[in-house]
Every structure is written in structure tokens, then in C-alpha cells.
Fold these 4 entries.
Entry 1:
Amino acid sequence: MRSENTSAIRPSDITPESVYGARRQWLREVGVLGAGVAFAWQMRLAQASYTQPAWILQKMMQSRRREETTTEVLTPYKDVTGYNNFYEFGLDKTDPAEQAWRLTTDPWSVRVDGACDGGGVYHLEDLLRPHSLEDRIYRFRCVEAWSMVIPWVGFSLGALLRRFKPRSSARYVVFTTLERPAEMPGQRQAVLNWPYVEGLRMDEAMHPLAIMAVGLYGKPLLPQNGAPLRLVIPWKYGFKSIKSIVSIHFSEQQPLTTWAASAPNEYGFFANVNPHVDHPRWSQSRERRLPATLWDPHWIPTQMFNGYEREVAYLYKGMDLRRYF
Ligand SMILES: Nc1nc2c(c(=O)[nH]1)N[C@H]1C(S)=C(S)[C@@H](COP(=O)(O)O)O[C@H]1N2
Ligand SMILES: [Mo]
């Protein structure tokens, strides 16, 4: 599943990848306990008091299949965890890293309902038990014209959804984020309709590139990235990749998603990355690959379906992508 790499890789860009590889090797060697201590220590540096249950650390130590869809340089951990959109914690890119440690992610459960025969309320650990985790290196493109390359840890969304036995009438799947204003200060303001809702057509959700992520860079997700469970749909704009999911609903109708509800002329249901269809207020033909600075903005061309055209274009055959944006 390796896609064409169209952006230039500078020799200085190669380091983080090898550092990451060496780090993972080291983590394997020191084992679960060592990893737990190292992880807790790193979190102390960055966060006040966020903790993850031991079982997720343990699950992550099991050897993982690794799939790379790009050989572009990885975006450093500090950018992936420090420059975020998570409006439940505020509008600034640094708000989630500053605020989200308050989020309690254990215990965590997910309600599954709608047009399926396997609905119910699942504890996160039971939800994950049958799935083996994989490392998936994906491009990630925000609608605001910046992008990253992130080594996610996750598992197939399709495999998860099949367990709930969706009925043939289920044409869409709808995801909802936690609503807990006591821990999510952004929810005390009406900037969006809370809770945050996103959705996919069933065939999109079953696509092998679509994953549920529980970690990145070999570590459990921090809350700013959507702990403990978030979607990653690499051929769509970032806002489809909903964070901190508490509900999965199978629906016969296309849902009204949060961003489409807030500005229907700017954000459609499909939100496929498309350099030929501009946002009404800015061009989508290029993107700033992070890390970027004022002096080195690192603009690169945006690719159709974020570079995953060969894999996903068939899903949209015959659709007018200007109308269904
Ligand atoms: N619940 C929720 N999920 C969300 C968002 C949000 O504000 N709330 N922001 C979205 C947007 S616009 C982007 S670009 C990505 C950012 O993910 P990252 O911070 O892990 O890079 O999360 C998406 N998921
Ligand atoms: Mo975004």
C-alpha cells in the first residue's frame, strides 16, 4: 500500500524516522514495566496528571505489523501532540495540549446502536480485545491547509464494525465524541453543537485504510489527540477523524455532521481531500507540512485524496466531487 511520494525529502529530514525505530527497539527491550515508567515520566514532563490504564500499555508492547503508505519524513512527536484541533478544549492549536490532561479516559465505554444486531455498551478493553494493533504511517491533512505524517497505532475500522453485525439497511455509520463540560472547557461555549458528530458512508468505513487509533509513535494516545479512541481517515480532511469516541450508530440516513451543520457552504459531508475544490475562504491546492515556521513555511502541493487516490477513488466513481465536497 505504498503510494507515490511527490514531496521532496531533505537529508536532514531522515533522522526522526531512525530515532523512532531505535526508540521502539529500545522499548521492546526494556519491556512493559520500563515502558510504563518511561511513558509516565514523559507525560509528567508534558502533562500534569494524565494516566493510562496498564492494559493498553501492555497491549501496545505486543509486536505490531507495520504498514507505511508514505516514505515522507515523520512529523516530530512534539508537533503531533502540541499543535492540535480539539475544540472541546479551546480554539487555539495549543489549547488541547494545555487543557486536555483533565480528561478522564478510564473507565471508558462505547455505546453501539441503530441498524445492527450486535449493539450494546462495550467497555473499551472488551472492544479492543479481539483486535491486534498495527503501526500505520499515514499522511494527515487538515482542512486548514496544514498537514503532518503520523505513525498511528490502530486497527481496522471495518473489522470492528463487522463485529456489530450491521443490517443491510445500515448505509451510514455515525460517531459521537464524549460530552463532559466539567472536563472539556470548550464545551461550556456554544462554538459548535455539542457533542461533536461525524459520519461515513458504510463503504467508506469498511475501506482498509480507515482505522480506529489508540496510539501514535508507539505510545497510547494523549487526550489532545483523542484518547482513548479516535478515528483516522487519511484520504479525508482532518475534521472527519473524530476524537474521544463514545458512540457508534448505524443509520439509514446521512447524518448531519458537526462542521456541515455549522457552515454548510464550507464543510460538506464527504470532506475528501481535493486540491481542485477550494474552501470558499482559501485554496486547497497546497499545504504547510509541519513542522513549519515563518522562515521555512514548507509548502508542498496537496494530492488528490491526500495521495490515496489509487486506493479510494473507486468509492466516488460517478459522483460530482464539486457538489459532494
Ligand atoms: N471531537 C473532536 N474531534 C476532532 C476535532 C474536534 O474539534 N473535536 N477536530 C478535528 C480536526 S479539524 C482535526 S484537523 C483533527 C486534528 O487531529 P490531531 O490534533 O490529532 O492532529 O481532529 C479532528 N477531530
Ligand atoms: Mo482540521
Entry 2:
Amino acid sequence: MTTQTQIPILDLSPEIAELRPEILAAIGRVLDRTDFIMGEDVHAFEQEVATYLGVKHAIGVNSGTDALVIALRALNIGPGDEVITTPFTFFATAESISMVGATPVFVDIDPTTMNIDPDLIEAAITPRTRAIMPVHLYGNPTDMTRIQAVAQQHGLRVIEDCAQSFGARWNGQHTGTIGDIGAYSFFPSKNLGAYGDGGLIATNDDTLADTARMLRVHGSRKKYHNETVGYNSRLDTIQAAILRVKLPHIERWNTHRRAVAQAYNDALQNVPGIVTPTITDGHVFHQYTIRVQNGRRDALQQHLAAHGIGTMVYYPIPQDQLPIYKGQYPTYPHSAQAAQEALSLPMGHVMDTTLIDHVSRSVQNYVR
Ligand SMILES: *Cc1c(COP(=O)(O)O)cnc(C)c1O
């Protein structure tokens, strides 16, 4: 047996190798100050990220899931309310809606973008609909012009799930700053990842920002003056310190991700049975996801695994088919098909072209 390269779907070690001294110094400064909860770096990061995103308020929280939940609570969405979202996403999207006692209403995806199809939203609106929660899946911005148009016409609020789209832009504007609230995740594998859990709420609305800040600290604006049942959901100071080291690199990293996607597309776009993603403006390629047609997705995944190449299926089960929701929804044909065909290849913001060539050749060799 020859030793073969192991290529994980995501390798964080090159980034850590580059930034380790700065990261350790940043953590050291937190240790010196011992301001572990809501410390100096949290406030500084909130300001820096607000400036980067071009938004009035950035509020650090404990995770992307909490950002979604607190966003819904800030909009006073709860039992009896419906929120329209995509079935083709990570569970946290729908889970956040269920967590506040509201009902997720799914609308099928556009098979080209893999995002919620704005043309189908209107038909799903009922008197109970309060909000639309688009997800910028794989880092590909949803058509926010059309989402905002439908929302405004029907008096709905918009919460953008930006867990996969930090740095992505729609018409030059950052995702998460176009609707009423943006919710971001700093899970380590996301485009801007912490070295633990973390999340963020972005909004231009002063009242929503004030409510979100109150909710993240046990529903209190003033210590020991709790107004409502809130959360213990703060961004850790150590994670904020790490994120401050990483934020200045995000534009370069996202540019690299687009170049990796372009290199994959160049190698794979004429391979029969493979559909490559469109490189739209502002797409930040959290994942590089191909469609494998003719029922060959799982076999290709196994072939690549046998050649040391890690891939993932995001997502194998649409939300409406999960045990928690099964039987409560019709099926959504485009989401169902995407769950059968989607395959995400190794992607990262520090990725060598030789790795891209190796992965592309392995895909070509199998499919041909
Ligand atoms: C990762 C993710 C979340 C949740 O973020 P966490 O920080 O892990 O809680 C929500 N929605 C989507 C689409 C995600 O990919």
C-alpha cells in the first residue's frame, strides 16, 4: 500500500499555525485582566464587527442557535405564530422557531441556489405568519431584494440565518444587515470561527438591540432587576479575543474560498453527472457543494473516502422529514432531491491548489 494524503473536509491547522502567537497573546491578555464574562474584548469585538458589517448594533451571544432564539424573542414571536423558512438547512434554524413555541412553515428551495425560493413564499403566508427566516446556505446570499419585497408587502419581519454566510454580501450589503435581524454563528468550522461556541446578533433597530441585550443576561437591563425570563447567553471574553485576531483576515480568507470554488468549477464543470455551484456575487463558500446525479452520490462519497478524501452531506434529511416534524408537512420535491444529491468537498480559507487538483481528479476518475 502506498501512503496516501489524508484530506479532511476542513483543516483548521494551517490557520492555527499562522495565528498561534497572536492568539496565545490575546488569550494571555484576558488571563491578565481576568475579565472572563463580558470583558473588554467582547465590547471591542462588538464594535469592530459592527463596523465591518456596516450595522448599528452587534451583540455577542453564546451560539448561532441562541442568536436565532433571541432574535425571535426580541421580535416577540411565540406560541400561535408562524415563521416561514427553508426545509434544506441545519436543524437549528427550525429548532429555534420551535424553541420559542412558534411553528416553522417550510417553503421549498430554488434548486439552483439551494436557498428558499422567494417565488413560493407568498402562497405560504397565513394570518398567523409573523416572519421569514431565510438561510444563506453554504455562504450563498439569498435574494434579499425579493425577500424584503414580500415581507414589506405583508407586514412580516425578516430574520437572516447567517451562520454560514459571515462576510457574504447581497448587492454589496452584508447578509444579516438587510432584514430586521441577522444571526451569526462562530462555531469553529464557520467562515469566522471561534475556538469554541459563539454567536452574534446584528441589527440596525435600537429597540430590538436593547431587547436582545436584555434577553442575553437573564432578561435584565439592570443587574438584579429581571424583567422577563431570558437566557445566560454571552459571548465568552476569550472567544471574543480570538475572534478579534481573526476578523482582520476574513476578507482575504473569503476571497481565497471563492478562488478554491473557481478552481473546483474549472475542473469539474464538464464532468457528466456532476452539477457545480454557480459562483454568484458575494458568495463566500462556507461549503463547496456539488450535486451528484443519477443516484451516485453515496457511491462517490465512499470512493473519495477510500482515497483519503473527507466529504460531507449537508443535509441528508430535509427538516420536514426529521423525526420531530415527520408527518406534519407535505414533501418539498426540490429539497428532497437536494438531500439525495448534495455533496460537499474539502474547502477552507487556507487550501493548497495541489489538494484541489487531487480532489478534482479523484471525482473525475470515479464519474468517468
Ligand atoms: C451552524 C448553524 C447554526 C447554529 O449555530 P451554532 O453556533 O452551532 O449554534 C444555525 N443555522 C445554520 C444554517 C448553521 O449552519
Entry 3:
Amino acid sequence: MRLCRVTTALAVLASTCLKPNAYSTLSDSTIRQRFPRSQSRDFDIHTGPILAPILIPRVPGTENSTKVLDHFVRFFQGELPEWNIEVQNSTSKTPTHGNEDVPFRNFIASRRPPWLSDGHVGYLTLVAHYDSKIEPVGFIGATDSAAPCAMIMSAVRSIDAAMTNKWQKMQETTDEFELEDSNALGLQVLFLDGEEAFHSWTATDSIYGARALADDWDTAMYPARSTYKTKLNSIDLFVLLDLLGSGESLPIPSWMQNTHWAYQHLAKLEHRLRKMGLFKSDNSQTWLPEKDKKNDAIFQQTMMQDDHIPFVARGVPALHLIPSRFPSQWHRIGDNAEYLDIPTVEDWSLLTAAFAAEYLELEGSFEQAPVVKRHEEL
Ligand SMILES: *[C@@H]1O[C@H](CO)[C@@H](O)[C@H](O)[C@H]1NC(C)=O
Ligand SMILES: *[C@@H]1O[C@H](CO)[C@@H](O)[C@H](O)[C@H]1NC(C)=O
Ligand SMILES: [Zn+2]
């Protein structure tokens, strides 16, 4: 991604967002019981069943890219069987492939309340790109964005049962008519391909997957009388994680005024989790320092170029979680597995999970279970 001036037209579009949905905070006891600190196995860089398979070069159209895509499919099919999985395909020429059409494949997984058909569900949408840059040769892109993909996978798995419980209870206790009318949100994951430029970042040499998907979803209409006109309209909030997972603790500004409310919720949650001692990484830092920034303050006139751009340009509200100063190994061969600070990766996953749980109003939907003992490292 790249930092650039936001055009006036874009800024105007971006402010015409959907009304934010209700949001309800989790209780301390739910957080303590349901979001314990020990998940280390997922994120082991050599054997972690979620993270390790992503830590290979993943250039679009290559065998390794297919391997990572298969890993996503296997994970959701195996561990999240209630989710719908889809791969959206497109092709494009690139500055470095001559006449060749390079394939781009976006991974899409979603889960919605079972009584609602697709055009009637708004989605909290968690997004990261899974491709890696073509050079330097052997580039892994551990923070860019292998780790963010893994954070999202682990996060959605940790709240999946609560979604089941919530919806079952709603079906048992609400009459059909009211159910139809209920405004329950679904959860959606996008792992986008072709974010990186092949030659150098331009409007046409970057975010290949995101551009293809935004285009598709803008024109694919839901049936008449659906709540939402298109798949694009049904994105309640587009949360994009990028360049996260190094131990450098780089602050993330609130980039956009129309999603500042969501940034503030996330920042409050970060603050709470730190105060409760649930973070494993350096607890003296703050990732989201603009919690108290006023809504009418001036938001940066700059905006980071990234996968959210084609969505924002069509009016989708986006929360862009990317530090304003990039990690020191950004786009260098050193952005490899060892560069990751695993406690930071785990903490981001925890924060993402708790945010999604609050966004989907899952308080009270986690089954009662004995308090999980905090796992202390030896
Ligand atoms: C594919 O991934 C493997 C690691 O599993 C790596 O050794 C190999 O170099 C990668 N291939 C390409 C073309 O990057
Ligand atoms: C995308 O291509 C794959 C084969 O590579 C295919 O299995 C899948 O169904 C395609 N997706 C769509 C939406 O057509
Ligand atoms: Zn990058």
C-alpha cells in the first residue's frame, strides 16, 4: 500500500455511509472466561496449524498461492462447517507478465443467521490480503499480510459457537414474523489476492483482487425486495488488517471520520484488555492512540492506498487498521517468519475476536463453562 492524498470526491463518498449498527460491549467476566490468553499452538511459525502454512511465498497464480488458498478452504471446511465458502476468480494483465493473463483468486467465507436469505443480512467483514510481493525473491510478507490472515482465522473460530448459540436462542424464543424483521448481522471473511504491485504501485498495478471483487459485488443485484440492493451494500463495516504482527508497536491512527465510532470501540476494547492483563505483548504501548479524538476533529487529509479503496469509492464504510509508519522490514526480505512477534499476533487476534463479538452482540451467547486458567509461559 502507499500513502497518498485523498481526493475530495472520495472523501465526500466516504462520508455517505450506512448507519452504524447497534454495538454492545462484552462484560469483564465474559472476556475473562471466553478469551483466555493461551492460543500459542495456532501461531507457531513452524508447526502452527493456522499460521505456518501461510508463511511461504504466495505470488498470485503460482502453485504456492494455490496451496495457501487450499489451506483456507480446508480450515473453514474442517473447523467452521457452518460457513459458506466461495472463490471469486478474475484475470488481469500486469506490467511484468506481457500478454499473459494472471489469475487472481479471492477467498470469501461467510456465515449468516439461518432464517435469513442472503440479501437480508448485513455483514461485519474482516479483510486481509494473502498474496505476497513478487520481489525480493523468496519474500514471505509475514506482516504483509500472512499474520493478519491468521489473526482473522483464529478470531472467527473463537466466536463461531457463540454465533450458533445466539441464533438458536433467537429461533427458539422469537416468533417467525419478528425473526424475519430482526436485524441480525452475519460475519464475513475476505482474503484478497493481488494486493501487491508487480512493478511499482499504480492504480492499475495493485489491489487486483479487491478491484475485481468490488466491481463484481457492485453489479450483482440481490433479488427484488431484498433489504440490500447488492453484496457491496450488505457490507456493514469493512475492517482491513494490514502490516500487523511485528513487535514494533506502531501506532494506528483513526483514518476516516465515518468509521471513527468503530475505531473508538476497538480502541476502548484494546484499553480494557490491556488493563485486565490479557495481552501478552508489550503492555506499555497503545496500538490505537486516537480513542479520544473528537468526531469533528480534522481527520488526516491523507489516506493509505490499500484494498479498501475500491470499496470506499463505492460508499462502503471501512476501518483501516494499518500503522501510519510501516514496520522496519516492510517490503524487505526480513519480513519473514522470525520477524513476527507471536505475542503481538495473538493479542491482535484476541482484540479482533472480542471486537467482532461486541459488533455481533454476542454477550450472553457464550456457553457457561469453567473459567479457563490463564496459561503462564515457563
Ligand atoms: C513455495 O514454497 C516453498 C516453501 O513451502 C518454497 O521453498 C518455494 O521456494 C516456494 N516457491 C516459489 C516459487 O516461491
Ligand atoms: C473459481 O475457480 C475455481 C477453479 O480454479 C472453481 O472451483 C470455482 O468454482 C470458481 N469460482 C466461481 C465463483 O466461479
Ligand atoms: Zn505489501
Entry 4:
Amino acid sequence: MPDDCPRPLDFETRQIHAGAVVDAETRARVTPIYQTAGYVFDDFDDGEDRFAGRSRYRAYSRNDNPTNAVAGRRIADLEGGVDGIVVSSGQAAIAAAINALAEAGDHILATRSLYEGTREMFRGILKRQGIAFEYVDDDATDEEWAARFRPNTKAVYTETLPNPLNQVVDIERLAGIAHAAGVPLVVDNTVPTPYLWRPIEDGADIVVHSTSKWLSGHASVIGGAVVDAGRFDWAAHADRFPQLTEPPRPGVASFVERFGAGAYLAYLRSVIVLEYGPTVPALSTFLLLHGIETLSVRMDRHVANAQAVAEWLAERPEVARVYYPGLPTDPHHTLAQKYLPLGPGSIVSIDLAGGQEAARRFLDALQLISPMTHIGDVRTLAIHLGSTIHAKLTEEERLDAGITPGLVRLSIGIESPRDIIEDLRQALEA
Ligand SMILES: *Cc1c(COP(=O)(O)O)cnc(C)c1O
């Protein structure tokens, strides 16, 4: 992207050009797949400079690869952050983002409605690492939130548009609550993508993604990303974040002193990702970049199809309830209008009146739509939640999370809406 553009470029242009560098040697237009582990040192001193981070050249692909760097910069640009990094999966992105903020003995507050894989990590491996997660109800007041913070609370964690039930989160309000308590707001923005919603504009400090979903769109890669808004004042809360504000070794300046607004992401890249090594292959990132180039075009089509399908499903006698905030009857319709003017994503969940047996007949009758776990594909996908993603929970925990026996999640693709609806019709009638 030319640095001397006369005006800021639009989203549709940046999704194609942001972060790209034309290869100096070959002048290749498309970002090449730099499938290499390492990079040759010019001489002895250059090796020393590379390790000290004083060279513009790289040392090792575990945390720094040219193909991956383009994707990190592009996603950061689209989200409105100062820096970003791509990693091996959405789960890896969440684990890295949390590990850069909290350690054993720390505490994190989270909204209750989260992707079940995230909840599994919070009550599983991260809890065993000694990080305590505490959930706050969706309808908690500001006072109830404020009362839950502790001196060792390191972040508030949420999602913009949690699936399967699409309970749009009031990000501006949560950012205010987190900042009043002196901690950053971490937001998983996988479902709307930065085309439909940029939570940094509403006050979020750190944004995480599963790039396996709509950002790539073709369902041929697993990947994740972390973006830093660069606005949180770590130095003002130095007692909470010594990893960023204190010298890592005697004689070395702190991350905040060395990297300023980019301190969090510099720490995440040069410590967390370097030490744990959740590296995404450059080939996967090449495919991800091809997906991002068409993001806006696909998302417009995803939301138009989802709206048409949701409206059609709302009229069906077999369907007890449709969860889609694009419907005026949905309880989150007003928040969706505020935060998602281009459309509230393409997850449409339905509660079948006939319960689990009806879900079994419906899923087994689908012909065009694929029964599988995944979302954000150009293809339409369907899954029964109670018997798969939420199967490890007790019946009571499932109902508590709104996972009723007849609940089926649809990830609406970009096929012809007529063909999607026709397959739904014949499966509902089965
Ligand atoms: C899928 C998903 C993840 C996990 O991403 P993977 O790439 O599958 O590891 C995290 N958050 C949300 C909202 C997701 O949909």
C-alpha cells in the first residue's frame, strides 16, 4: 500500500493492500509463501543484531515470518489497531493473549456467553495454570460488575457476538467498566469480523480472532490472530502489569519504554509466542490472505442470506424460536442496530419444537447443508449443540447456557438463498 496516499483508504481497499510489501528481489505482486525456518546472517555482528532485535531482518520463523507478518499487519489495520500477530489457531490466540496479561494467582472477569471452546480452556488448562476465571451475568448492572474486581484482576474478557445465541454485547459499556477498574478489555471478534464491527472503536484494548472462520472463509486453514489497540496505559497500572513496565533483565529497558503503544504486542510476540511457539505455517497464512481480500463482498452476502433464512424460519411451525438479532422480535435487535449497521453476522440458531428427536431427523435429512462443526464457511453448515459442542456439560449446565435439546446452529453460507431455504424446507418436513 503506498505510504503517500492522499487520504485514508477505505476498508474494501485495505483488505486487499494493507500490510503488503512488494518483494524487493522478485517484485512479486502477491505476497509470497516464505516457507523458511530461518534467515541467513550477513556476518557475525549481524547475527548479534538480529537476536537483539536491532536489525530490520528476521532471525527465526517461530515468531517472525514475512508472510505471517503481512497478515498480522493487515488484520491490525482492518481492526484499527497498532500491531497484530497471526498464530496457529483461534484457541492459541486466546491462550497467548491471556498469558501475556495474567499468571498464576491472577484473576480474570468474563461475560458468561462465550464460545464453548474458550470456556473449556478457562475451566481447563488455564485454571490448572493458576488463573481464576469468574463469570458475570449478561444482565449484571455496572455496580455488580464493579464489585467483582479484585487487586489481582488483570482483564475483562468478552465476545462481540457470541454464538450460538447471538447475544450482542454492549462493548462500549464493558470498556468503560474495565477501564474504571484499571484493566484492559479483551474482545473475541471472530463472528462479526472487522468488516461488520470494529470493537477498538468502542473502547476495546485487545482483539482476538479465529481466522479459521469468516476471515479466511474457505474453511481450508486453522489460524488465529491477536491485535493490540495500543491505547491501554500500562504504565499507569504498573503494579498490575510488571511484565510490561519493569526491566526484563538488569540493564534492559521495559517493554513500555522500548515499544510505547506497541508494548503489549511486542511482549506477546517476543516472549509469549517465542517461548510457547504457536506458529502458523506460512502456507496457511497465504490462504488466509486470499480469503481476507474478498471479506467485505462475502460478508455482505452472508448477512443478506442469513436475514432471508431467519425471516423464513421465523414463520415455520416446526421452529419454536429463531435466534438472529436481525429480526425485530429478537431481544438483541436494538443493540445490533447500534453496533452492527451492516448486519448481525451469519449465525442463525433455531430451537426445534420437537426437541432432540426433531433435531436428529432434521440433520439427517439435510442434503446441501453440511452437518459439521465449524462456522464462517462459504458453505452452509449445521450442528446440534447439545450432543456435540456442549455434550461435556450436564443437562442443567446446558439449560443454564440456553442450550435446549432442540437447538441447532446454522452458519449460513453464500450459496443461493433459494437453494439454502429449499434444503431447510425439505429437512424440516422430514
Ligand atoms: C472457532 C472459534 C474459536 C477457536 O478458534 P480455532 O481456530 O478453532 O482454534 C474461538 N472463538 C470463537 C468465537 C470461535 O468461533
